[in-house]
Design goal:
The protein is mainly alpha-helical and 136 residues long. The chain has five helices and no strands.
Length: 136
């Protein structure tokens, strides 16, 4: 029993290219659906209209949406990224600060200890003991 492989390299190339565009189109479709649902400027009817358009006429709906609302889609992505970055920075500041949000943070206390050591008010042994006690 012999197996015959009769699939020319050009056909393989076209198959891979079509598969790539098919995956790219699905990615774009889901990105657009997420953008429609996330947009606060659209009314409920506007969201429903865009969703129906992109689901009933998928290729045309995706391309029209990108042409009509592509720029604002990018602006919403940038705004969401900035909002997420600000929330992350707030979280880091809160986590690095002292517990309960009152008083100096741990980093401030460690900086004060290092400054006292540099000024000569603390010896090396006193600094190490104070640091160990503070971090324990």
């Amino acid at each position: 029993m012999t197996l015959a492989y009769d699939y020319p390299i050009l056909s393989l190339f076209w198959t891979m290219l079509l598969l790539f565009f098919w995956v790219l189109w699905f990615f774009l479709l889901f990105k657009i659906i997420g953008d429609v649902l996330r947009d606060d400027d659209l009314s409920g009817w506007g969201k429903a209209g865009w969703l129906i358009f992109t689901i009933l006429l998928p290729f045309l709906g995706v391309f029209v949406y990108v042409i009509v609302r592509g720029r604002s889609m990018g602006e919403r992505d940038v705004a969401q990224a900035k909002k997420a970055e600000a929330a992350f920075k707030d979280y880091v500041r809160e986590a690095a600060g002292s517990e309960g949000g009152q008083g100096p943070s741990r980093t401030d206390e460690l900086a004060k200890l290092a400054q006292l050591k540099e000024s000569g008010a603390l010896t090396e042994e006193e600094f190490v003991k104070a640091k160990e006690k503070f971090l324990a």
